[in-house]
Amino acid sequence: MSAVVDTLRLTAEEAIGLVERGDVSAAELHAAYRDAIEERDGELHAYLRTVEEADGTSIPIALKDVISTKGVETTAGSKILSGYVPVFDATVAARCRAAGLTLLGKTNTDEFAMGSSTENSAFGPSRNPWDPSLVPGGSGGGTSAAVTAGLAPWGLGSDTGGSIKQPSALCGNVGLRPTYGTVSRYGVVAFASSLDQVGPVAKNVRDVALLYSIIAGRDPEDSTTVELPGAVVLPQEDRLEGLRVGVPRQATELEAIEPGVRAAFDVALTRLEELGAEVGECELPRAFDYGIACYYLIATAEASSNLARYDGVRYGPRSEGTTYREMVERTRDEGFGDEPKRRIMLGTYALSAGYYDAYYGQAQKVRTLIVREHADVFGRFDVLATPTSPTVAFPIGHKAADPLAMYACDLLTIPSCLAGLPGLNVPCGFSEGLPVGLQLIGPQLSENTLFRAGHALERSLGLDLVPERLRT
Length: 472
Ligand code: GLN
What we know:
By secondary structure, the protein is α/β, with parallel strands linked by helices. The chain has helices at about 10-20, 25-45, 90-100, 140-150, 165-170, 205-215, 250-255, 260-275, 285-305, 325-335, 340-350, 355-375, 405, 415-420, 445-460; strands at about 45-50, 60-65, 100-105, 155-160, 175, 195-200, 245-250, 280, 385, 425-430, 435-440. The radius of gyration is 21 Å and the shape is globular. The two termini are about 15 Å apart. Bound molecules: glutamine. Glutamine binds near residues 139 and 161.
């Protein structure tokens, strides 16, 4: 590995500086990451496949395998898409390319981004760089593990109910789920369209802000997108005077939160106060009482509709059958794993005539209440803070057989997703030697405020986020 490029510590901003000043060539930079992948990805399985395409001045990036990449296989972690090679780039992939970023590889994900550990990937789980016997979180565990283990300077994930924020918390890096509608989903494999958002993962808040500025903004190919109201501001300030931070009582009183996570969170709140922020309590009862139930009706309903396109005709492999119906049935039976099947059945049930009003209709009403509840709270606070995940990284296999335990991983990340709000995970300490993340939630389009708060906090805490076992 090149002596000047320590991929475990180098930020993307620093990498750009090295290449711009000519201290390191783009080819050397890519080679350093490829060496790191060679050395460590056999154990971590962050990547499903890597790509060799470095050119003159480019900076490498890892993309979650739900993002279509022209000429590069894109599977969404599913057998039903194996061998599928898109003929176009997703808008986010095209924007990265236009900004001089080159694809290092496609990262592992739970099948169709359904999961919280990457154990639902049809191609085997990824592992946590802090301890390979533990999960890296999910569904974006591949991107998150890659960033923490120095296998990519930064990457993109997708977040429906927590798939960027939760793996960032479990691996100890920074991840942003942007405001719904600020980043294009054109060319992104759909899970639940009223919730899916693409967002950046990196070592620090400034890198996340920089990558967000590259991918965000209106895209004529995705009619749900909007132009950002102003420029993305790379955070610089170290003080937080005047920032009002609300802490939802329900979120901190949850029994599911491990004592070590609570302790690290409390220390971070005190730090926010020392930085000049005003910290106060607020109430979000419906969001935390009904968020998960509401999400698992809406997300499964939308998934059952989105996944209907995988029929053995349009994409990927086809199983043989004597009739069209038999061919489709066999393709789906053999192509989908257990979790997508479970969700297709749940969603189809929730949308069926006779049950539609009782389940899907009710869930949509509850969602509206959750939106309003957040809007009320943002009359008094600029941002909300909660732990991101109730637990630190857990052992592979620990929750795999219990879908409800797995669903509870996103207890704290889901409510704001239902409300379309941006959320940032910032590492805030350690419990049992593993990273703990703090989630900052803001009103729509408040990314700059989240960046400012997250940056001041990370600078003040000054945590060493290189896993101990990888430090040299
Ligand atoms: N873990 C949640 C789920 O399984 C969220 C996944 C995501 O955000 N894609 O649906």
